[in-house]
Amino acid sequence: MNRQHADTVVVGAGIVGLAHALAAARRGRKVVVFERDDFAVGASIRNFGMIWSVGQQRGKVYERALRSREVWLEVAAKTGLWAPESGSLHLATHPDEVAVLEEFLQLSDAARDRGARMITAEEAAERSGFVRRDGLRAAMWSPTEVNVDPRRAIPAVAEYLAAEYGVEFRFGTHVRGISMPTVSTTGGDWDCAQVFVCSGNDFASLYPEVFADSGLTRCKLQMMRTAPLAGGRALGPMLCGGLTLLHYAAFDGCPSQAALAERMGAQRPFHREHGIHVLVSQTADGRITLGDSHAYGPTLDPFADGAVDDAVLEYLDTFAALPPEAEVTERWVGFYPSLRDGRTELVVDPEPGVTVVNGVSGAGMTLSFGLAEETLATR
What is this structure's pTM? Predict the structure, then answer.
């Protein structure tokens, strides 16, 4: 079999791999992407479709999220990809939740500059007809969040890369090994100058020693999706409640967060034990996506726990009311690699010309385009 050539090889056609393929192609490089499955089936299509800038760590990571948002909107403008700039509402039903949101705005000049602000319960209900007004004290509105439909967005980005930049995709092709400048695959050997290994949850197949020392572990989550809403009804802003203020790094350092954590631990021990916080988004065809939970470990069972889904739905009911036709029709389990030591990503070079990019946790849709541009700028 004849050797083939590319400037840049990307391993993995999830969002991290697609982002690095785009960043390389925009630099004029000939790019080929290898994906072992016939199409992307991992975490990149098993998520909310939230480009969730507001939840990211203040500073560099938040700016990275905003840059990723720009790229999503650029791609959407060129392809017609569904990507409404819907924004988000953090709904507060307790004084400690209001306090955390107010403290966040005091700490985050960048979020305030981008339009994040506190609004009244009445204003929140006006922005989304799904908001449960009873018990709602206040909300934080953020205009920066963008909603995409991951099951449509991921293949659409791949099609855009192929059409716009000539990126070549080899689906159903395993990368068996890398010894620069050669990448050995089940479809033959390729010579290249640069490789990005973006293999997601399958993080141990290549460079196993690197991953053994990386600090990466796996996260298992459970999610649900409803039937389409009648009459094309729109969710409006993506929604979340007080538990989300304990999940995202943006709220770390808020003085009232400790009191919130203590209360939630006492009132909702099951939710805290299973890493449950509840987000609400919509798909292009009007379905509502709900979740999720978080369990961590090197090996996790593949089974869904009905009690976890019940807890998600119970907590959802405290801040949002879905219409009767929003019956849950899909449930699934997802897995993604995670760093549990405060790092926001793993970027390492196991040999000259090879860069491993992994561990963006549950923020791949939000961070990958910006991260890829940063990575390519130094390689």
Answer: 0.96
Contact between 322 and 130 under an 8 Å Cβ cutoff? The reply is: yes
Distance, CA of 266 to CA of 269 (rounded, Å) = 6
Q: How would you classify residue 362: left for phi > 0, otherwise alpha for psi between -120 and 50, otherwise beta?
A: alpha
DSSP state of 343: -
Q: What is the DSSP letter of 21?
A: H
pLDDT at 95 over 80: yes
Please give the backbone phi and psi of residue 232, each rounded to the nearest 5 degrees, phi first: 65, 25
Cα first-last separation, the chain:
30
270: enclosing H helix or E strand: helix 269-273
Burial 273-282 (b: 16+ CB within 10 A, else e): ebbbbbbbbb
- The mean pLDDT of the chain is 96
Q: What is the pLDDT of residues 329-342, one digit of tens each?
A: 999 999 999 998 88
Per the structure block, which two tokens stand in for 216?
């990466």
Q: Distance between CA 235 and CA 214 in Å, rounded?
A: 40
Residue 78's pLDDT band (cuts 50, 70, 90): very high
Tens-digit pLDDT profile for residues 185-201 = 999 999 999 999 999 88
* CB-facing half-sphere around the CA of 112: CA atoms within 13 A: 10
Q: Which DSSP letter does residue 143 get?
A: S
293 three-state secondary structure = coil
R_g of the chain, CA atoms, integer Å: 21
